[in-house]
Specification:
The chain is α/β, with parallel strands linked by helices. 48% of the residues lie in helices and 12% in strands. The strands form two sheets. The protein has a six-stranded parallel β-sheet with strand order 3-2-1-4-5-6, with helices on both faces. It has a two-stranded parallel sheet with strand order 7-8. The longest helix is centred in the C-terminal third of the chain and has 31 residues.
């Protein structure tokens, strides 16, 4: 039996641990969070997030091999595998404000792990979306203290979409695990891979170096957002000509090299991930001396903002330049 702890009971940590508990009944899974109200809801049938199928999985495993708690030190002390799934918002001030990831919660978690870990060996799994080379920084924190625990950090980014998270977890396109190229790093990655192999075919479990894994998450979201901005830019051209953007989307989506997904013209991409991750990516490019690459990815965000503004300008124009007393649905 392995004790698995996840620090962070949010949108990623909760469903992911529920899936692991469901498919790995021989292991004990504990999800911890500083927010007692959130934990209370995970321990009820009024979960803090809604995903189709999530409640049923939680109900089946909770109290058997799935537990939710606010006792973070105890959960860390008992853990053989520690998933870190804390919030990494965009910085609001200081160097990189508005673009770089704010790692204060991540750093606090790393120091909590260093302080409270008690097992001889602990695998720490990055689950949060983090800038490339963050695992290196976490390993540096974990190795600098007096702890007798031997830590190994691996990257395991999530690829969940809102509304289909449980389907994405049950039947993922791939599970990505990044590790250091050492014997202990490879062993840690195999430990995590063995968890997913309970239900994911081995050929879908991809082992990479840790830096490739961290960067792949940002790139995946950037590429999807790029498709949205690309088709929206063409929709503007269609409005100036006699072309139909729906017909164009269908025509180019029929090309097997392109495919139909994320090719529907719209008001633009929203949500909490695409814009944040692209700006993180652009900031990284600038940090590593690639301003041209940064400008390219920032243009994806600019097109998205322009499309939204263009949409609302068209609404305003059809409403005699005023929305006073009007309801837009």
């Amino acid at each position: 039996m392995t004790n698995i702890t996840c620090i962070g009971a949010g949108y990623v940590g909760g469903p992911t641990m529920a899936a692991i508990a469901q498919h790995c009944p021989e292991h004990t899974v504990t999800v911890v969070d500083l927010n007692p109200d959130r934990i209370d809801r995970w321990n009820s049938d009024d979960l803090p997030i809604y995903e189709p199928g999530l409640l049923e999985v939680v109900q089946a495993a909770r109290g058997h091999n799935l537990f939710f708690s606010t006792d973070i030190p105890k959960a860390i002390a008992e853990a053989d595998i520690l998933f870190v799934s804390v919030n990494t918002p965009t910085k609001t001030f200081g160097e990189g404000a508005g673009r770089a990831a704010d790692l204060q919660f991540w750093e606090k978690t790393a120091r909590d792990i260093l302080q409270h870990a008690r097992r001889p060996e602990v695998v720490v799994v990055e689950k949060s979306t983090l800038p490339v080379r963050t695992a290196e920084a976490m390993a540096r924190i974990l190795q600098q203290g007096p702890s007798e625990t031997r830590f190994e950090v691996v990257s395991n980014p999530e690829f969940l979409a809102e509304g289909t998270a449980m389907v994405d977890l049950a039947n993922p396109d791939r599970v990505l695990i990044g590790r250091t190229e050492t014997a202990s790093g490879r062993k840690a990655a195999e430990t995590v891979a063995d968890l997913y192999a309970h239900w994911v075919p081995r050929e879908r479990i991809l082992l990479t170096n840790v830096w490739s894994s961290e960067l792949s998450k940002l790139i995946a979201n950037a590429m999807l957002a790029q498709r949205v901005s690309s088709i929206n830019s063409i929709s503007a051209l269609c409005e100036r000509t006699e072309a139909d953007i729906s017909e164009i989307s269908r025509a180019i989506g029929a090309d097997s090299r392109i495919g139909p997904k994320f090719l529907e013209a719209s008001i633009g991409f929203g949500g909490s991930c695409f814009r944040k991750d692209i700006l993180h990516l652009a900031y990284l490019c600038e940090h590593y001396g690639l301003p041209e690459v940064a400008a390219y990815w920032e243009s994806v965000v600019r097109i998205n903002e322009w499309q939204t503004e263009r949409f609302f300008r068209k609404i305003l124009a059809t409403q005699f330049n005023t929305l006073t007393g009007k309801r837009i649905a």
